[in-house]
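User: Could you check the structure of this?
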Amino acid sequence: MTSSRTEPKYTVPGLSVQDGGRLVELLRLRLHALNDLSLTLKHIHWNVVGPHFIAIHEMLDPQVDRVRAMADDTAERVSALGGVPLGTPGALVAERTWDDYDIGRADAIAHLGALDLVYTGIVESHRAALAEVGKFDPVTEDLLIGQLRSLEQFQWFVRAHLESSGGDLATAGARTENEAARSAHEDGVR
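Assistant: Sure, the predicted structure tokens are below.
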């Protein structure tokens, strides 16, 4: 018999079961975010077109690989804490707090504009989780710090394509992925 319970009955030595359960809860959403990000990156990889195609196409594969490794590390931490990592598409869709990426076939700069907002969302939510776990678990804190280091670097790679020589970001002020894609595309056409 298998169990999909998410509340641990035990956790790692030195943490209370209650604290372990809170970590599992926080990491469950980080796992969903990372799985969603890896799929979104692959979607962009398959649907990017235009003169910057090959640069963006090839830039994204190492990001996909690293984000998948982050998801694996996160799932393994959930297991170590006594929780059950839920990696199914149904669990991701049911529990996520963000909308699905909805840019289809588009030029590279438009996708990068939308991806900038995707990275902003995941970096902000990782930082919020980090602030909470840092109060009581340095091991999970270290995991999230390492992930943030890579996620912020990946966003920098994206933003390098969207920044003017004067330091203006084409996606500044965009509130949705579609707005960011449109702003980046229009800025790139100028």
